[in-house]
Design goal:
single chain; 338 residues; alpha/beta; Quinone Oxidoreductase, Chain A, domain 1; Rossmann fold; 2 domains; seven-stranded mixed sheet; six-stranded parallel sheet; 24% strand; binds zinc ion; EC 1.1.1.303; ADH-like_C; oxidoreductase
């Protein structure tokens, strides 16, 4: 089969022939229908912080149809349509009981979705609702990230909320805030690039960072934000969130910043701010996300700006890296044009 492989920092992904995956015990193989690409893929191939080993197969936001099952598989059968966790824990330890499998010290990785076929774990598989397309199924992973963040912040419909960073994670937060009935939501962006995307997903206030931004946010929301979601993951955005949130407000950081950042703890203390980080999602978020996308797919789908074939994936990946693509979610359809 064909797969997209990481070769080296500074080189585009390579599309190569690799052996078809075989399902081990408790595993299945899916024919990949769509696989998303995200900031984590860029981080792990950029040479900043953690870098994947040469030859690694990318892709962790995938959905597809089961074509083979291994020994001991009970819940899945050939023909089932699934989205699958890219990292699966042992299922027995204290960390696994948190529901966040990545916290398990015995986790196993099931990335490799940027390929014709991918191996998945039955434990990590979410059966998709019959009416949800496989293309929408690939959105379960990124939208589950937003669901967990919004769940942690626990907004009331009357809360004033600011999202810093309108990338796919910020937009998935917007999706869940809308579903929670939160009325006053503003997005703060460094450029206008994603304005149409945010508006298509229901954003009413898309504001640009500037010296006047704080006043504009206050005017748009009717006061300082009760909750700030930090979804930019670049240095300075935590300090900015502390400056913008109201006294005793809460900040949830979802951005994945892998370089040192600075903020003045005393500034957060002086406002009695609650700051917490959110690591991906629980298994339940995954399942709930599939149901929500089934019910509210139009608004979620607006986030997808590019769908390309596996052959075109390396070039699209570089456009994502340089910020010259569509600005929303990039999906790879391995079978497009074949
Ligand atoms: Zn991702
Ligand atoms: Zn475990």
């Amino acid at each position: 089969m064909k797969a997209a492989l990481f070769k080296a920092v500074g080189e585009p992904l390579a599309i190569e022939d690799v052996p078809d995956p075989e399902p081990g015990e408790g595993e299945a193989v899916i024919r990949v229908a769509r696989c998303g690409v995200c900031g984590t893929d860029l981080h792990s191939t950029s040479g900043h912080g953690y870098t994947l080993p040469a030859g690694a197969q990318l892709g962790h936001e995938y959905a597809g149809e089961v074509v083979a099952v291994g020994r001991g598989v009970r819940r899945l059968k050939v023909g089932d349509r699934v989205a699958a966790l890219p990292v699966v824990g042992c299922g027995e330890c204290e960390a696994c009981r948190t529901g966040i499998d990545v916290l398990c010290s015995r986790w196993r990785g099931y990335g490799g979705g940027l390929a014709d076929y991918a191996r998945i774990s039955e434990r990590g598989a979410t059966l998709l609702p019959q009416t949800l397309s496989l293309a929408d199924g690939a959105l379960v992973e990124p939208f589950a990230v937003g669901r967990r963040g919004v769940r942690l912040a626990d907004p009331a419909p009357t809360d004033r909320v600011l999202i810093v960073g309108p990338g796919p994670i910020g937009l998935s937060v917007l999706f869940w805030l809308r579903r929670a009935g939160v009325r006053a939501v503003a997005l703060l962006a460094s450029s206008d690039r994603r304005r149409p995307l945010a508006e298509a997903m229901g954003a009413e206030h898309f504001l640009l960072e500037s010296d006047a931004a704080q006043e504009e946010i206050t005017a748009a929301l009717g006061g300082a934000p009760d909750i700030v979601f930090e979804c930019a993951g670049v240095p300075g955005t935590i300090a900015r969130s502390i400056a913008l949130v109201r006294p005793q407000g809460r900040i949830v950081s979802l951005g994945f910043c892998m370089v040192p950042d600075q903020f003045v703890p005393g500034m957060a203390l002086m406002k009695d701010v609650a700051l917490r980080f959110s690591l991906i999602y629980t298994r339940e978020d995954y399942t709930e996300c599939a149901a929500a996308l089934d019910a509210d797919g139009d608004r979620a789908r607006a986030m997808v700006t590019d769908t390309v074939s596996l052959a075109d994936a390396p070039a699209a990946f570089e456009r994502l890296r340089t910020g010259t693509g569509g600005g929303g979610k990039l999906l790879i359809d391995p079978w497009l044009g074949r």
